[in-house]
From TrEMBL:
MF term (GO), any: metal ion binding
UniProt KW Chloroplast keyword: no
One Pfam family linked to the record: TauD
Record keywords, A-Z: Dioxygenase, Iron, Metal-binding, Oxidoreductase
Residues forming coiled coils: none
Limits of the TauD/TfdA-like domain: 43-317
Protein family per UniProt: Belongs to the TfdA dioxygenase family.
Superkingdom of this protein's organism: Eukaryota
Source species: Aureobasidium subglaciale (strain EXF-2481) (Aureobasidium pullulans var. subglaciale)
Protein name in the entry: TauD/TfdA-like domain-containing protein
Length: 331
């Protein structure tokens, strides 16, 4: 256990300021919890040890984990040994419905081929790495922008669970997380008042175009039909009762404002939320590592694919929200 507390959560920090700190260790039943970012009364992200992934997770432990998730927004588990079936089974313990993969490029072309999982790795069907400049390569570039999964769905999703398979990746394999609750809390009151009732149009093709303007200036009719835009309040209440910002690179327009003014404010807020004081970077260390985050109270981004990255096999399940804000706003 002790060596884990020396893990660094800031990939740029040679100072190690974001080391997990032994004095912050908490015990919850049989679980050991190591918070990542602790600032005053606020804590964001935690590594959790002590879950027995070999068996179905007992309901009591699931309840403890959800309580931790409400508090920390991002939970990290190392070397779980989970396979697809148990990944899905655990996700189902967290919500009734999981998102179904639309298989943009055909189920027959999907390496995992499991409708309840999204292949977000960089491996093609034949085992080769994703070709540079392919449509899939360009699609993945949007994941490197700060975002929240599935804000472009009118019934949004609450949780994402990303599980790695196979060997550790070389070439820089991190997922970065930002604390939108603390970022909201630190806004000036006049800004909070301005934001309070704003409604945002979220569009997957907007973020694809931002990340890859040449390929995604004109999404295909099939792509557009599969993902029309959705509308959600900007300021929301997180599970722990604190207010938070529901934001993503998918955010295209503020209802009632011009596109230009909308984008200016949206990116001002994303820049605010992603200042280093609100962000940590989780390094993928070994196969079986899993991160489970709450899309209702955080943002995240991946590293973009690079030519020097080795094979990265990561698969995501997504749990659909069933709470009071799940369906957003009707326009
Ligand atoms: Fe994502």
């Amino acid at each position: 256990m002790l060596e884990t507390v020396t893990r660094v959560y800031d990939k740029k920090a040679s100072t190690g300021i974001l080391k997990l700190r032994a004095e912050n260790v908490k015990r919850v039943g049989d679980l050991v919890v190591l918070p990542v970012l602790v600032s005053g009364r606020s804590a964001f992200g935690a590594e959790v040890f002590g879950v027995d992934w070999n068996d179905p997770i007992p309901e009591g432990v699931v309840k403890q984990l959800i309580k931790l998730q409400d508090k920390y927004a991002v939970l990290i588990f190392r070397q779980t040994g989970l396979d697809n079936a148990r990944h899905i089974a655990f996700s189902r313990q967290l919500g009734e419905k999981l998102e179904i993969n639309p298989f943009f490029y055909g189920r027959e072309n999907d390496r995992v081929g499991e409708p309840l999982l999204f292949d977000v790795g960089n491996i093609e069907l034949d085992g080769s790495l994703v070709k540079s400049q392919s449509r899939r390569w360009h699609h993945s570039m949007g994941n490197a922008l700060w975002h929240t999964d599935s804000t472009y769905h009118q019934q949004r999703s609450k949780y994402s669970l990303l599980l790695s398979h196979g060997d550790a990746v070389t070439g820089g394999c991190y997922t970065h997380f930002a604390d939108t609750r603390q970022a909201y809390a630190d806004l000036r009151q006049d800004m909070k008042d301005e934001l309070e009732d704003l409604i945002i149009e979220h569009d997957l093709w907007h973020s694809r175009k931002l990340a890859s303007p040449i390929i995604y200036s004109n999404p295909t009719e099939r792509e557009k039909a599969l993902k029309p835009p959705a509308y959600h309040r900007l300021v929301q209440v997180a599970p722990d009762g604190r207010k938070t910002l529901y934001l993503a690179a998918h955010a295209k327009r503020i209802v009632g404002r011009s596109f230009e003014n909308s984008q200016k404010l949206i990116w001002q807020l994303i820049d605010h939320c992603t200042q280093p004081k609100y962000v940590f970077s989780m390094e993928w260390l070994s196969g079986g590592d899993m991160v489970w985050w709450d899309n209702r109270q955080s943002m995240h981004r991946s590293n973009p694919y690079t030519e020097s990255m080795s094979a990265r096999d990561v698969r995501r399940s997504t749990v659909i929200d069933d709470g009071p804000l799940a369906f957003g706003v009707e326009i």
